[in-house]
Design a protein that fits this description.
- The chain is of the alpha+beta class.
- The protein has two domains: 59-159, Pseudouridine synthase (2-Layer Sandwich); 163-346, Pseudouridine synthase, CATH 3.30.2350.
- 28% of the residues lie in helices and 23% in strands.
- The chain has eight helices and 14 strands.
- The protein has helices at residues 25-42, 48-65, 68-76, 107-119, 147-158, 253-261, 285-291, 329-338, and strands at residues 79-82, 86-91, 128-129, 138-144, 163-171, 178-182, 185-190, 196-201, 205-207, 214-216, 227-236, 239-246, 305-312, 321-324.
- Strand 3 (128-129) and strand 4 (138-144) form a beta hairpin.
- It is globular and about 75 Å long.
- The chain starts with 24 loop residues before the first helix and ends in an 8-residue tail after the last helix.
């Protein structure tokens, strides 16, 4: 039968009698502190991007754990513009516009409290969401004080009379550097180890059998028209800063058009970076090096998709209304690490 040896240091031996004494609680605490200090000294320093990602994760978790009233108060501090009919807020990352399963706080749920914070207890006005944004999209979100105003703005966007400009960081350089993507989008089932659904392209043209041209095909009845204007603002280190202007409003349109039409997925898009599976985005070595990340850590990268600016056409005797929103901290940190220049004007 094997034996077990108990290793005892000199500190565990009585100096006078030479007998072994029991390990005290104070000794255990000292040992734990010593090990913790050694671990901290040997820890690889985090890059600025890693720190910002960790900070963003903590902040997002806090927004979902606080009381709805506290969340509404935090949202009131992110107001970009307000008048008698309209309020614009800077939508935070990781917060849905409408409530979903397992989520405590959402923009829509906070509106009654937000209205009282802005107008006072006796204000009595209601706030209404003008359009939806994905949970992980940041930037300008318009809220109307009446249902009529909300519907009017929604229709302006739907009819392409309002101009919305997004900024994204893509992995890769779109070619050509400026253009219009006009490819319908349809929901598709992806077969594999993880059966799931994604939005995908449904082209209206295919190559001829001879390979010398294109031939038009019949449009799929479930496909939706999707048009996106894009322009590369700067590019280096294997990534690009791209301005996107959606001309239609199809689910995941910008993510699908960048990833599948331009072959340049948005940084942090773990859904569309790889078509046949759901897995953390795989980044080129050069991009990982610039960001100071390991491939195993890319799962924590947030989606770099931001509503930079929205312009509403003016009514009678009024000029256009333009609301701009600064980029979030994690976005600017990534630009800095990638050495991508941000234009002075949005």
């Amino acid at each position: 039968m094997g034996s077990v040896k108990l290793l005892v240091s000199a500190k565990d031996t009585d100096a006078v009698s030479g007998r072994r004494r029991g390990l005290r609680a104070a000794d255990i605490a000292e040992k734990l502190r010593s090990d913790k200090e050694k671990g901290a000294n040997n820890k690889v320093p985090e890059s600025p991007v890693q720190r910002n990602v960790a900070e963003l994760k903590r902040f997002t978790q806090q927004l979902q754990s606080v009381h709805p009233n506290v969340f509404a108060k935090a949202l009131s501090k992110s107001i970009l513009y307000q008048d008698q009919t309209l309020i614009a807020v800077n939508k935070p990352y990781g917060v849905p516009v409408y409530s979903t399963g397992g989520v405590r706080n959402s923009i829509a749920e906070s509106l009654p409290v937000l209205s009282k914070i802005i107008d006072g207890e006796k204000g009595g006005s209601e706030l209404h969401v003008c359009y939806n944004l994905e949970k992980d999209t940041t930037g300008v979100l318009l809220l109307a004080r009446t249902e009529e105003t909300a519907e009017r703005i929604h229709n302006l966007i739907r009819l392409h009379q309002a101009e919305t400009r997004y900024m994204v960081i893509t992995v890769g350089l779109p070619v050509p550097s400026e253009g219009v993507i006009d490819i319908p989008i349809i929901e598709k089932e992806v077969m594999g180890s993880q059966r799931h659904f994604k939005m995908g392209l449904s082209p209206l043209y295919r190559p001829t059998e001879e390979g010398d041209g294109l031939v038009r095909v019949r449009a799929h009845r479930q496909a939706q028209s999707a048009v996106t204007r894009y322009k590369v603002l700067d590019s280096t280190s294997g990534c690009s800063l791209v301005e996107l202007q959606p001309m239609t409003g199809v689910k995941h349109q910008l993510r699908v058009h960048t990833a599948l039409a331009l072959a340049c997925p948005i940084l942090g898009d773990h859904k569309y970076a790889q078509w046949n599976k759901l897995a953390p985005q795989k980044l080129p070595e050069g991009v990982l090096r610039r960001l100071g990340l390991e491939q195993s850590k890319t799962r924590h990268l947030p989606l770099h998709l931001h509503v930079r600016q929205i312009t509403l056409p003016g009514g009678r005797g009024h000029g256009d209304l333009t609301v701009s929103c600064p980029l979030p901290k994690f976005f600017t940190a990534a630009l800095k690490k990638l050495q991508i220049e941000l234009p002075e004007k949005p």
